[in-house]
Amino acid sequence: MKKRLNILFSTTRYWNVWDEFIMRWIENLLNEIWVKYNKIIYNRNQEVNWWFEFLNPLRWNFWDRYSDTIWFQFLNAFIKLGFFDNSFAYKYYNKFKNNIEYVIWAGSPEWAGYRSKILFNLINKENISWLMLWIWEAWYPWNKWKKWIIEGVKKQKLIILRNPEDYENFRKLNKNTFQLSCPALFSALENEEKWKINEIKSIGCTFSFPSSSSSHSVKNEIFEKYISFIKFLKNNYPNLRLYAVFHHIKDLVLFNSDYNYLKDLFIDTYYSGDREDYFNFYKDFDIVISTRVHWNGIASSLLIPNIAFTHDKRWSTVMWFWSYTYDNDNNTLDHFKRIINNPSHFQEQLKNLKKSQKSNRLDLLSNVFSNEK
Are 34 and 373 contacting, i.e. CB atoms less than 8 angstroms apart? Predict the structure, then answer.
């Protein structure tokens, strides 16, 4: 019987909520190919790991013994001393590096910055197997990659990219590179999918604001179009129940302060700091209308018809979710009416889509872990 693998996942906890959902998809796929593993987290939350953390000796083990003293707590209010998060860190590197079998980059555009230097050390210096799953070039254009990034990319056992425009640059360095659509479609398991929708009664309106955190804010122009469309639905479909859904605490705060004039549009508000709650939240809705492409992915995964108000170059992602992309009010309203007239038809399409897209992803992962089962 094979022992459980120690797999180090690069993700975030309580910072970029989308990373937590990416992690869930990858866990689902690994579980489906029967890989047994210990899930070790490298937490890229900025409150936990900073860009140049690896240069800071004040974060080493030495401070652990003093953590409950008054002077330590006082100094720590001004200077970051020690490391106490329940995740992998530089202070564990030398003691544990030989026990890590795989490093998996669980999505995200932030894959090659200094915050990830420790991970590239594991690849380049320790020769640990590494998989980049559903990353995208984004913040790190290939012509600005540093030598240690290029060396790490060359050693990957598998690279799966989300965007086709990134494919050629990675493929030049590593032939184990593939481009496949975002795995948000697989975030919900079959037993979590929404039952047949016979009538549209409630709409989940998931959105952020122009003043949201920089990583998930929305442009003013798109925000105004989104709110205008929601107001139209409110005024012309009085029997529909509209709910506001937020995935980040700052958005919930903004909704109750700077944007509290919008509260009359909605019956109630949904928010949680736990990713798992959203799969139950979304099943309360018969349609989801979102300004974030990945929330469309979750809706499609749950077999809920959805509409996307996209605002950056990631808009093409929703094509793979069979989400309708807003282009103008009239066309979007026509599509909305089609959903209302036959919601179960759209559900059946989404169910078939999930089945057709899963096999090639499982095959790629199975090939990597074929000797580990």
Answer: yes
Domains of the chain from N-terminus onward = 5-180 (3.40.50), 190-355 (3.40.50.2000)
Which residue in this structure is represented by tokens 């928010």? 271
Asked if 317 and 295 count as a contact pair (C-beta separation under 8 A), the reply is no
What share of the chain in percent tops pLDDT 90? 44
92-145 pLDDT per residue, tens: 888 899 999 999 988 776 777 788 888 888 888 887 888 888 776 555 666 677
The model's pTM = 0.89
pLDDT level of residue 240 (50, 70, 90 thresholds) = very high
- Residue 243 β-bridge partners: 204, 268
List, for residues 288-307, the tens digit of each pLDDT value.
Answer: 999 988 889 899 999 999 99
For residues 324 and 226, the model is more confident at 226
**CA dist list (Å): 266 to 32, 63, 201, 228:** 39, 49, 14, 14
Helix 117-124 × helix 147-154 angle, to 10°: 50
Q: How would you list the strands of the sheet with 202-206, edge to edge?
A: 268-271, 241-246, 202-206, 287-290, 306-308, 324-325
Question: Which amino acid belongs to residue 308?
Answer: A
Report d(CA 338, CA 253) in Å as an integer: 35
SS (H, E, C) 321-342: HCCEECCCHHHHHHHHHHHHHC
Contact (Cβ atoms closer than 8 angstroms) between residue 139 and residue 109: yes
CA 305 from chain centre, in angstroms, equals: 20
Alpha-carbon distance of 66 to 61, in angstroms, equals: 10
What are the CA-CA distances from residue 185 to residues 26, 38, 106, 309 (Å)? 11, 24, 15, 18
Please give the Cα distance from 364 to 30 (Å, whole number).
11
Parallel, antiparallel or unpaired: strands 324-325 and 241-246: unpaired
Query: Using H for helix, E for strand and C for coil, what is the string for 35-89?
Result: CCEEEEEEECCCCCCCCCHHHCHHHCHHHHHHCCCHHHHHHHCCCCCCCCCCCCC
Tell me: pLDDT of 163 over 70: yes
pLDDT, tens only, 171-182 = 888 999 998 877
